[in-house]
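[job 4471] stage=fold_predict status=RUNNING
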Amino acid sequence: MVSTSVPQSSQSITIPQRHTGAFALIDSLCRHGVEYIFGYPGGAILPIYDELYRAEARGDIQHILVRHEQGASHAADGYARATGKVGVCFATSGPGATNLVTGIATAQMDSIPLVVVTGQVTRGAIGTDAFQETDIFGITLPVVKNSYVVRHASDMARIVAEAFHIASTGRPGVVLIDVPKDVGLEEFDYTPIEPGNTNLPGYRPTVKGNPRQINAAIDLIRASHRPLLYVGGGAIAANAHEQIKALAEHFQIPVTTTLMGLGAFDEHHPLSVGMLGMHGTAYANFAVSECDLLIAVGARFDDRVTGKLDEFASCAKVIHIDIDPAEVGKNRAPEVPIVGDVTKVLEQIKQRIEELNIATNSERTKSWLDKIHLWQEDYPLVVPHPEHSISPQEVIVELANQAPNAYYTTDVGQHQMWAAQFLKNGPRRWISSSGLGTMGFGMPAAMGAKVALPTEDVICISGDASFQMNLQELGTLAHYGIAVKTVIINNGWQGMVRQWQQAFFGERYSCSNMELGMPDFELLAKAYGIKGMVIRDRSELKDAIAQMLACQEPILVDVRVTKDENCYPMIAPGKSNDQMLGLPQKTQS
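[job 4471] inference complete, writing structure tokens
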């Protein structure tokens, strides 16, 4: 028991009990609904792991021992993306903490809620260059939403409650809690703080949109003939899928999504035009170039979306809806800025439409939708079928056909873009490092998603170069029997680097070939006690994927694909969205 309630008159009082800072941390995490912690122990964090040992023995929480701290941060990230909950990871001081930095930056760039706990040297040793001391608070300042160094054990419950509140509200992000070793050991009179009992006067995210701006947005939508909804990761974070669908259908507005926004709108819907940007569909990029109104929903006008910024949606007026006021107008000044929670703002718009009795007018956008449908027919995504090898696109399409409802994680590069083009994911079923572009993200992120959702299929699509960044996490999969299915699109290259070297650097392939030193992935999997497979021929593909999906244990599939296939369409640096390389030939009528 943490505290004792004693009757006194008609009320009760809570008598604090003596506990350590480590106990307060673990107890607070449990009170905030944490089921899994991904981490790796070390000297400075041992008091916390000692308390964790007791909590695990009670069945209060489970720790997943990764093989590298970066794997812990990516696994917590994948857990958070798949569930919408706050992910939690642990690491010790010094190199343990610095090994988390890439995962922290990855999550923060994509607005993923994490609470990261690091051990630190004792308070008296801070600043003395003690063994395994690093200023992780200072190192991570640019890549976190907020951070703490716990100076007194009595602050622990408050700090944890604040951390979870900050990480999960407003624009989600990463909160770091750095715990000196002696703070973990320090005893004090512990009074727990329940979730939601926080007092942060300076932190009040704007949730509702300004009513005048709501009216202005509706006026622009009603006046538009060529509107386009541009939906980003903020819509996923806000669970705004139904609200986006309702707005799109009411006004018959086509919808394009960013890499982070995939799944926010059903890509089988006739109003969907898929992903836009550097490797987006031709029809999405043509649409954004010719629209007269761009409705940005939880998107931040990233450079991989906009191409040449001053030519991005140059014919359009802009409505920008985002919970982060720093993003509204940062790259493109909108005619109607609306700061607020995406879901609540869209509900406000819907409510106002009903109040004004604005009827659906499909005729207004009919010619616009007809034009987009012609682009879709003329410039489809193409799946090559080379005579003597398997194309990467074929592998993605086969996965999509056999496992349309799986949760997919990816690494970064060509395979990521092909997966984005050809998978049709539902909400939260697309998990990919988008802003930072972190190789090695895919398998540990899949690990986190599978731990969170043990009855769902979780498939990691990786490349032979990306996979080798964190291949040690095969040990974690084997240790816990985490049934992640990993598919390596193996072309023997850092594929996207090779493509850029071919297109823009005179075919000088400097340090991008990965064939020398490449492991036998099938044998590597078997060395970890995991089933491995190799697919070399198209005739094997369908049955092998079916066999992989039927496997109830971790499995690794190495698919040998065409070595020189490029990912198109592609917008070259400095070009506008309608100036794409590699467009397919128009289909013959």
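[job 4471] summary: The two ends are 75 Å apart (CA to CA).
[job 4471] exit 0
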